[in-house]
User: Fold this.
Amino acid sequence: MSPLSSSMRLTQLLKRLVSFHGLWIEPIVVATYNDLVLCCSPHNNQSNYFICNPYTMQWLALPPPPTQFPVTAKVVGIICDAPYYNYSNKEDDGKRIIQVNADYKFKVVRLLRSYDHPTNFFLEMKVEILSSETGEWSETVVSSPESWYHIYSSIAHNGLLYHLCQLTHSRTCLAGLDPFMIMNTITNSTTSNGLDCYKCCHVEMDTTVVDGFSGDQCVVSERSLRISYFDWDSFSVYVWDLKEEEGHAEMDVGKLCYKHTGVYSLDRDIAPDESSVSVFELIAIDPNNDDILYLNIIGDLVMSNIQTREWSVLVRESQTIESNFFQLELPLWPTPIPKLRQHANGGGTTSS
Assistant:
């Protein structure tokens, strides 16, 4: 199935949600995981969440979160445990049997921040987690070893949810948390009220290699957590790769760190009008190849390979170029819509 047909199917599915659930506003996509899409409507109150699969045209309506306006979800993420299918061998002829495993667990995570927060910098953030095992939302507090200023995105990778964050003094890091352990992990971290909380891990970047660095101009690879940043002055892409430091036992896989691994100049013919700096934007990394980037250039969707410097225009004057972009994979077998334990507020699946 082509990306265009995938987008069309998702559009059709969102319209079905409006009709079936009597929504006033068409849902918007807030996160993806594999080929599953997490969307919500309306945007401001974020009271209706749905897990959808545009390939199977099925969805799951989630119970409303406990906290709505005037507290807004800064970032929302979804993560599942694998596998979605069980494989076994038949005893008679040795053929493999594939059985759907729709009982896999999932978590939806909302990072909240109140509009009336006393400062722009915060060491703690309220977190709401929906568990498929209970069918209910739970609340906790996540603390940071350093003050956050802004959170840009949520990326699921190897069982953790990572969030690209801006720290003080324009520093940037990737903050990771484990939604499957967050509610039952005892830590020695306490909130400002003296309550136990979950302390997330930080992987900071060295951004001194480029002047004027801004975290909102970065894109993160869901495949490898590579971070890429476009610098207009040098017309180059700066790349940081996640590495494992030796001689540290802080984590099972060692202490992770970001290493600046390269600077790649782009072909200046990709943007013939130098005034297009205001509409030149790095928007995504290819899910299968970290060297392929997607850019918004004066409304055109452009694909560029930073190794070969080859580029091509995929879509001219795209009407959706100003939307947020999410990676949607097309696996060999579509991910079944997960099951949710019965709860007081209802919710369930439906299909075409």
Observations:
- The CA atoms of residues 17 and 23 lie 7 Å apart.
- The longest strand covers residues 136-157.
- The radius of gyration is 21 Å.
